[in-house]
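JOB MANIFEST
job_type = single_chain_structure
chain_count = 1
residues = 501
[input]
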Amino acid sequence: MSGFADVAKKVDGSFKSATSSGGDADSYLSETRFDQCTISPLTLKGIKAAGYEKMTLVQEASLPFILKGKDVLAKAKTGTGKTVAFLLPAIEIVSKLPPVDREQKRLPPINVLVVCPTRELADQAAMEASILLKFHPSIGVQVVIGGTRLALEQKRMQANSCQILVGTPGRLRDHIENTPGFATRLMGVKVLVLDEADRLLDMGFRKDIEKIVAAVPKQRQTLLFSATVPDEVRQICHIAMKRDHEFVNTVEEGSEETHSQVRQMHLVAPLEEHFSILYRILTEHISEDVDYKVIVFCTTAMVTKFVAGLLSELRLNVREIHSRKPQSYRTRVSKEFRESKGLILVSSDVSARGVDYPDVTLVVQVGVPADREQYIHRLGRTGRKGKEGKGILMLAPWEEFFLSSIKDLPITNATKPLVDSDTIQKVERALGHVEMKSKESAYQAWLGYYNSNKNIGRDKNRLVLLANEFSRSMGLDNPPAITKLVLRKMGLSNVPGLRAK
């Protein structure tokens, strides 16, 4: 146990932040090994089989308290190993419980409930649990998320063992209200985990969380992980946690909000050049790194679809992920990207927060992000777990206002790549092959997105001129027509330059 027993004494703020320490690839790791910790041999075997030997800082800081059964509020950034920090002790608790008696067989209790803000995060946590449970075959983990049929989940939970349940708040509330016997099963919860608590609240899940907290026993352990601890998170702590809970802080005060290993750059160019420049950025990056793994973030789902279509026509190895795709497709693509190299993922903000894609080498953000936080979350997909990464923000000249909101970050001016006439022709040809329907949807979505941005949407005449500039960048001489109803909803009826249908 050397070094481990004293961890509790030096928790609050004295650790280097996993994300703000130097470029050393192991900088997010502590010196403490998992075999120095009081966990059962089978769980330890699972940890080793998963390839973990040393704990990360958040694991080293929180595990002593969690294993003692304390409620813990842990302030920790994403990509620092917090999923294992709550799953490991949860598995330990379940493994020590007596077998289910005959009366409980019909509605076997759920012992651990993990609440995640997004479907992707829930899938990821469940997958991590399955890996750690390799030598605990009798412990079952299941996931319940929106976008799948409720009846299907009800059947699955009934048919397979489910001591650990991971879910999104809305779907969990759905089961509490509509699945017979579910509320009874929740009376067996020993550990409640709220993951990415700040994000849960940002997304408006407070009412759902309150409902979930009310549905589980008062005598339980509660673990709450959050990258930031604003007042709203403290209020949830007050509702969900014991008064004597431990606060573990692995984020060094005043540490950078973004990973210092990520080289951040911005590039300003006219819209008409964006697609050729994007193509050059990607081809140059691919030629420099055979194990490239790139995420290109776009402003909306339909713009994402269009850009993915264009890059596919340009013969790049591309996958797309956005809210218009069914959940089963998103899960499959997410898994493929996580496990692959030599791939470009074109994404809307559905992938911006929390999802842990290892070894992302480059993040490109095309167009102005919704806000500073969104920029930081997107950038956080690279430079994880001590690895280096690169981020490029591509803006049009009239989007430069956004730079003032991130001027305190270490972002530099990128050199515009040289785009020769062959590249321009190649991109123009590819644009000609992207289907018209995709361009029409992208134009309308683009118009809607920038219309809602107060810096750009205020002047409707200028907004339409810019939208038509975007239309030309897609290779269209005439902007696509939009229905009168949609134009009325956007407050754009009778604005010159728009075509109504």
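[summary]
The chain has 19 helices and 16 strands.
The mean pLDDT is 86.
exit_status = 0
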